[in-house]
Structure formats: C-alpha cells, structure tokens
Amino acid sequence: MKVAIASGKGGTGxxxxxxxxxxxxxxxxxxxxxxxxVEEPNSGLFIHGHLVHQEEVYKxxxxxxxxxCTFCGLCQQSCNxxxxxxxxxxxxxxxxxxxxxxACSELCPVEALPMVQKKIGHLQQFRSEGLHFVESRxxxxxxxxxxLIASTLDFVNKQFDCDWTIIYDSPPGTSCPVIExxxxxxxxxxxxxxxxxxxxxxxxxxxTMRQLGKSFGVVINRHGIxxxxxxxxxxxEGIPLLAKIANSRAIAERYSVGKxxxxxxxxxxxxxxxxxxxxxxxxxEVAK
Length: 288
Ligand code: SF4
Ligand code: SF4
What we know:
Blueprint: E1 2-6, H1 14-26, E2 31-35, E3 50-62, H2 74-78, E4 84-87, E5 90-93, H3 103-107, E6 115-128, E7 131-138, H4 146-159, E8 165-169, H5 176-182, E9 187-192, H6 196-212, E10 216-223, H7 229-237, E11 241-246, H8 249-256, H9 266-287
Parallel strand pairs: 1-8, 1-9, 2-7, 2-8, 9-10, 10-11
Antiparallel strand pairs: 3-6, 4-5, 6-7
Bound molecules: iron/sulfur cluster (2 copies).
One iron/sulfur cluster is lined by residues 62, 78-79, 81, 83-84, 98-105.
C-alpha cells in the first residue's frame, strides 16, 4: 500500500507520525519512507541511516537562441504562466515560473526555444536497519516544489514494487505540492490537533481529499488539549478516526532531541498498532 500522511496545516505532528509509523512497519514488512516535504524535509532528523544513493534533480525549461528568432511573438502568447515574454528585440525566459509544458518550444516555428535541463534540487536514499528512506530537497531560491515531488515519486515507483509499503510524508497545506504528493497514494492519513485552528484546516484538507476522490482517515495528535469539535466532525461526516495520540511531556521531550517515540512511549505504540490494523484491513478489502 501507498499511504500519504498529510495535514491541513504545519506543526500538527505529520512527520512524527510518518517516521514512527514507517520505523514500526519496517520491523515486520518491507517499508520505505519518502519525505516529500521538499521545501523543508525533516524526517531525516529522526531517521538516521547510511547513504546508499544520491542524484541531482532537474526540470526542463526553454532556452532562447537569439540567432534563430524571428520575433513572431508566438512563445509569449502560448505561455499560460508568463514565463516567457518579449521585450522589444529580446525574449526573456523566467525559469522559476516555467511549468515545463513545452508549449512555447513546440510552437516556435524556427526552433529558437529548445528545452534544456535546469537543476532544481537533489534526492538522497538512505538505509536505516530494515527501513529505506528517500528524501528530496529543493535548492535554495527554487519556487516550485511540484516538479521535484513528481521526480521523487517517479524514482520511488521505479525502485520499489508493490511488495513494499510506501509512506509519503507530504507537505502541509492544501495547495499544489500536497495534491502532487498525495496523487500516488492509495490512502491518506490526515493528522490534526483538536483546536479551532486544527479543526478549520482539517476541514480544508477533507474538502481537498474529497475533490481528489481519495480514501482518507484522521489521526488526532495532542489529544487532550482544545475541544471535541474534531471528533464530533469525524463522527458526523463518517470519517474514520484511526487513532488519538495524547498530548504528553514524554513525547515532547523525546521529539525535541530527535528520538523515535514508539519504543519508549506506550500510547504511541498503541496508536501505531491501531493504524497498522486499519491499513491491513483496508489492503485486504482493496485486494478482494
Ligand atoms: S516563438 Fe520562436 S521565433 Fe517566435 S518570438 Fe518566440 S522564440 Fe522567437
Ligand atoms: S515550457 Fe510552458 S510554462 Fe515553460 S515557458 Fe514554455 S510555455 Fe511557458
């Protein structure tokens, strides 16, 4: 199964759940954790493995060949993202805005905009005991996370077949990076906290998952603070509530020094057992 762990907002415990669930599953099944929060990957703070592979990641952008250009203006007209504009006798390309759609390059009548590679980040693969861990990191100054997430998903799908359980640690929010990061998942776990802010952003995340047609469930982190709105909402909406993780000083202390929690905090292990049971039941239903 491929499981994406997402949240409407940052700081809800998405990475805590991703890293602990992956390490726990890896004790009994072939598991890979993929950090797709490429603007700020931090699963590596908790998973300490040795490097087995690394590569640079590129996207394709047009490059203007002045000598061939007839200044017909077709490229500017064809770009929906204003990534190529004509300024008098100069065609300017803005690689940061380019979505690599190839339209300008294909439509240019004199082949004056060939597509070339532009480095956007790098990918690393680690091995930590039984767990494989893949992390991608966007270069400083790069604005588009989606092409790097898409490349990382391609890499993972080539490296790991359907015998593997794949856990995606998704970016926070409900915008394009999350949509790309969850696009490949069979199931999405939305991590939230029982506060008005958490509840508000959970509803946005639920709307997004419904529009994408994804199966999803909720894990409440820091249970015990705030109120019951999230639980009542899940109940009313028929959303599976997979587990609740208590707000606890023991968890905060171990988290702050980069430790995995489930071996030392019984309630975290209990939550992971419930989640694993739910995922196994789902996988069996899907396989029927
Ligand atoms: S489409 Fe090609 S020829 Fe026309 S302005 Fe753009 S680069 Fe120049
Ligand atoms: S490849 Fe597509 S997005 Fe990029 S500059 Fe050309 S038309 Fe615009």
